[in-house]
Amino acid sequence: MTRLIFLGAPGAGKGTQAQTLAHHRNIPHISTGDILRQAMQRQTPLGVKAQDYVSRGELVPDELVNDLVEERLDEPDVEHGWILDGFPRKVSQASFLDELLQQKHSDRNVRVINLEVPDDVLMARLLGRGRADDNEEVIRRRLEVYREQTAPLIDYYRDRQQLVCVNGNQSLEEVTAELLDVIDS
Ligand code: ADP
């Protein structure tokens, strides 16, 4: 059973690696960023509410993402595992998830991967990516929000002995190989 949470700054490669691993293991890749972008594109009620926050590089309010993750983890395809990418992104979301997984009796074997990449490399990658929320000012804000709100989750999960750190500053293939070693161990 593979249940993984991907941590890491914007640009660390979470999305790409999460997708590759999910494919390898044939389990769903649940990216809150992807779900929000799709909702914004379709202008669903969720998308309309999230739009302003996302375009400014701020986190959307907990109740929006908590609800969407809760609903997603109720789908039948998560039965054999899942990879969460972009959630939790702050301690309040991590507590919510802990409780949710406890209710589902599946909190025991969740591992948390922290993909580590130096700041200058992150900035270069993000500027090269060209997504709508990837202009320099918004990127700076996203990195700031990461440091203030998401980075504390590294200690949170280390204290719970769930954390595994992987060097994200290697080729895509090298990172994938390391990650496969981790999830097979
Ligand atoms: P990144 O490449 O910055 O990691 P994501 O695709 O994960 O980007 O997320 C894009 C944006 O979606 C974030 O900047 C934020 O506004 C919003 N978002 C995604 N996940 C969450 C979450 N768990 N909590 C709050 N906001 C989120």
Automatic annotation (TrEMBL):
Catalytic activity: AMP + ATP = 2 ADP
Enzyme Commission no: 2.7.4.3
GO molecular function: AMP kinase activity; ATP binding
Residue numbers binding ATP: 11-16, 129, 170
Cellular localization per UniProt: Cytoplasm
Family matches, as Pfam families: ADK
Ligand binding (AMP): 32, 37, 58-60, 86-89, 93, 131, 142
Single GO BP term: AMP salvage
Region (NMP): 31-60
InterPro entries linked: Adenylat/UMP-CMP_kin, Adenylat_kinase_CS, P-loop_NTPase
UniProt pathway: Purine metabolism; AMP biosynthesis via salvage pathway; AMP from ADP: step 1/1
Domain notes: Consists of three domains, a large central CORE domain and two small peripheral domains, NMPbind and LID, which undergo movements during catalysis. The LID domain closes over the site of phosphoryl transfer upon ATP binding. Assembling and dissambling the active center during each catalytic cycle provides an effective means to prevent ATP hydrolysis.
Complex formation: Monomer.
Protein's recorded name: Adenylate kinase
Species this protein is from: Chroogloeocystis siderophila 5.2 s.c.1
